[in-house]
Amino acid sequence: MIYLYPANKMENLLVLLDKIQQISPLAVFSQEIIVVQNPGMQHWLNLSLAKQRGISMNIRYALPAQFLWKLMRSVASDEDVPDQSPYSREVLTWRLAALLGSDEVTANPEFEQPSRYWQQETSAERAALKRYQLATQLADLYEQYLIFRPKWIDAWQHRESIFNLQNESLPHAGALDEIEKWQGLLWQLLIKELPYNPVTLMQDAIAGLNNKKAELPRRIVFFGINAMAPMWLDFINALSEHIEIHFFHLNPCFSYWGDILSEKQAVKAISNWVDGYEDIRSAVGNPLLASLGQQGREFMALLHNYSLVNIDVFEQAGSQDTVSAPEPGQQAAIPEAVTASVLAQLQNDILTLTDARQAPKKAKDDSVIITSCHSALREVQGLHDWLLHQFNADSELTPKDILVMCPQIESYAPYVNAVFTRGWQDIDDKIPPLPCSIADRSSKDAEPLIAAFIDLLNLPDSRFQVSGLVALLRLPAMQQKFSLSFEDIDKISLWVEQAAIHWGLDQQHKANILGLEQGSNSFTWQQGLSRLMTGFAYGDSEVIHQEALLLPVVEGDDGRLLGQLMLIIEQLQSFSHQLSTARDACSWQSFLQQMLDELFVVTGDHNFELIYHAIESLVEYCTHALYDKDIALSVVREFLNSHFSMPDPGRQFMVGQVTFCSMIPMRSIPFKIIAVLGLNDGEFPRQRQPLGFDLLAMTAAKLGDRSRRGDDRYLFLEAIISARQALYLSYQGRNIKTNAPREASLVLKELMEYLELGYGWQLGNSGDDIRQLPMQPFSADNYLGAYPGFDEKWLKLGNSTASGEENGNETLLISQEVISQENQLGDKQNSAAASENMPAEQQGEKTAQINASELIAFFQHPARQFARRQLNLYFEQVSIELEDAEPFTADRLQSYQLREQLLDCYLVAATKEGEDGPAATSDIDREVLQVITAARLAGKFPYLPTTGELFEKWRDDSEQFSRVIIEQGGDNPSQVYCEVLLSQADGNNISLSTLLPVQGQQLVFYRSSSAKAKDFFTLYLHQLILQVWQRQLAAGQISLQADEQGLLAHVSDCSGFYFDTKSQKVSQYRFKAIADPETQLARLLAAFASGQNQALLVNGELAEHYFKVTGRGKSFSQQDFEKYWHDVNAIRPLSADPYMHYFWPTCPDLSEHLSMIESLYQPMYQALEKVKL
Fold first, then answer.
1. How the protein assembles, per its UniProt entry (predicted)?
2. Domain 89-195 is of which CATH architecture?
3. What is the pLDDT of residues 1052-1068, one digit of tens each?
4. Helix pair angle (448-457, 466-473), 10° resolution
């Protein structure tokens, strides 16, 4: 007998199951058999029964297909039937792969269509992969035919066409006939190998039930299943004549609703004058149930084809009464609802088949929340804030009471980790931790070790890129295997960066990858490791040996670490060659396990268990399929990749935390709060594109057929009826780039329309009842309304952004106690101001020591210096960034450094010529050649024929530049130490020191680059120091500390020589005597002191642009400043500078900073001269 228990709440089904087990217990050693659709339902049921009884034991949970196959096998009484079904999708794949490659198929013209698919590949391995992929798709199709079209299988088995079947209205078409013909023939070949399939086995099992009563269990419970193929229901019905079958079924509606239609179906029926459909309202009932519940409606219709004992257990939403078990043959009473929220009213409308639109009313509360966002990240952030408010409002709410579902959890997992899994430093009393678990993730996406194992299988096709191999070393299992620490890996990263290793094992490997007869050895592991190894052997200096620049960076005990690295590369190279060999499944198992043992410390970790299980599955399926052929690596890789891509529904589901998971059918577990994210048009309901040879998709659907779209629509309905307190629905209603409206999912729009017409909600594009989140978390709107945000850091950023529009000089995220008001520096500022603003650690000293280089770095970027020195903030990339791509263009910095080296060679040679007589041309050429050769072999420049031409050009440029410097600047250059002492009003002193490059009667600076703001400031500062020193010497305040300082007495100006590589011209800039140098120097020191306490907007680059514009007689307005701030043509505009953006998120007000800029830089640009050459 089949006992059917429909209920609208899963908790009531649980109570009934518990009562039945108590009233009618099994024998002491008999197991209760409960069939569930997925491990998630098993986990909830087990926990709930344990909570109900205090313990849950002696229960065997099973999945439907596996359980029914084993039961049919035991009843059929045939020892030849294998324990593992040879017609399961996994085994059938390998049987089909063997058949598709056999002569029986390839020689038969009937199979021309499937054979052509994989035989057109020129590579044998590629052909084997496509044959396996075709077999995988066919296996899935045949499994669907077995379950949903058993008559087709029976017809093919009897060598008949499915078009000849009675009651099968199949359209005849040329393409369809051809597909049906070869699929039928292929099935006949499968039956020829193994005659037992689920259809025939079920027929034999039904016939043998009378003889096998003693082997049948006393009772079988099917729990929470809302869809099952008619074939399985037929077998279950046959079983029910001998044993008890208990079907616990979640039914959203109390009334019979098997004949209701969706509004679309009803309109079509009325328009076609179908009898019995005169009124849309009577045909539809509740529109949500009619539209979303097709799958459940069809399953209910299938169940009612059998003889049932129906025991209804329904309860109105919002009721607090406990459901008691009904007497046999009676219906359970429906307790009345106490207070009904909007969510409860929705559930009751569905329960009673009521259409609220027929009697509209005003009802709004927060039991249903619909949120529109710009991105998936904002969806998660908005949910996090809303959940915090729920915890504040309900002291009994716990994290385990919350379920969050997404169409694809992998799309949201990174954002969940970022928002919910916060670092402890980000947690305070206002933002308590919300523990969460992410279920249904695929192993290869969730587990780095498994992802690394998949990458290892790609070694034969790998470029051996440096970043991938270093990332492999960071795996704990590999670190343990080779005794590597994190410091060791950082050191290895530094070595490979210095050795210019980018990709490729060696010269031959690069040639194979690029498809060339011969490749270069540049940038390969062989070249880089050879440089490191020979550098370790040769000593402490860079040496060019046998056309290689040796690297002496490995010292002492680090030689062992270098040896470990070479061993790892050697092993990976060996496995790369071995992986290319095809072998049978058992040999693959031995080899892959050996590879794991040699590269990792294999422990009992769950990840290693998953890997070994996957490898064992390969052997198991091939064994059951009698597949003993050699398998290509590409096929093994495809099998394992597919295996690890499957979601693991048993892990991290309901572990006492907020549960994030994918939307999986038949897992309608009740929670106090259910949230559904990602309800976007085109993404949910999910759709699966049918294959071009899928007969199910090409013919009319039948009662009981399942589809991805139908599953998702019913999933959404189950989410509505499974939420107990609140239902949170979120979608991306705005485009994050254009802010244009985006449509919600069709199922969400149907719910929104129902709320609008039935309950008076305003849910249009700008509806008041949609919670519209701003695009940015620091927006002021994010901290307003019913559910304001909690994160104070975003709030401070938002406040700073808003106030920055009025006061651009306010700093960001720095308390006002730390930042003093900006002092406007005028012409009357003197040295006393510098002492007043000097940092506290300098104020207590008699003499504060400052080097000119500190001032130059400060005025180049004051905000950066303040962030680094006072706040310890470094926005630059501090870790070594390994590049997988070899250089194809000359790096600007590297080319500049090379030009500087070449220039120094020629200048040093000129100095020697002045001291010791004419230097031999061969000596100069030899030194220059050595510099160029070292640069070429260092791996910092492209390995291209044009690189040599670049070197020659830079050499000629440097030689020409050196001649100009010598001719215009004079000879006998000297570096003279200079120190000036500035007295302060409080009695303290500032000592400012530098080295002055004296050349003739001027200071000479030069760079192999065009002149920039920092160069002008360098010249200006040193001219000021020189003049102050000369004045103090003349006044007797200081004395000569060295003989060479006498040279300074005759120096009159400061010149800078610069070579512009674009124009190929040398430019000279000069400062002569500057009026009142003490005052100008005091202003610079005062600004430097002020910049230790706050961020200043007095960048030399900004000042240069300002005076360049105003120097032409033009004005520089706030609008001009904003254009410059966001200059899209600049390499990096000020707005893109991380330090500038940190302190000034929006363009500041120029007037707040203009007086300081003019005070500091105007004297400099007034005195600056450009000398014609």
1. Heterotrimer of RecB, RecC and RecD. All subunits contribute to DNA-binding.
2. Orthogonal Bundle (1.10)
3. 899 999 999 888 899 99
4. 130
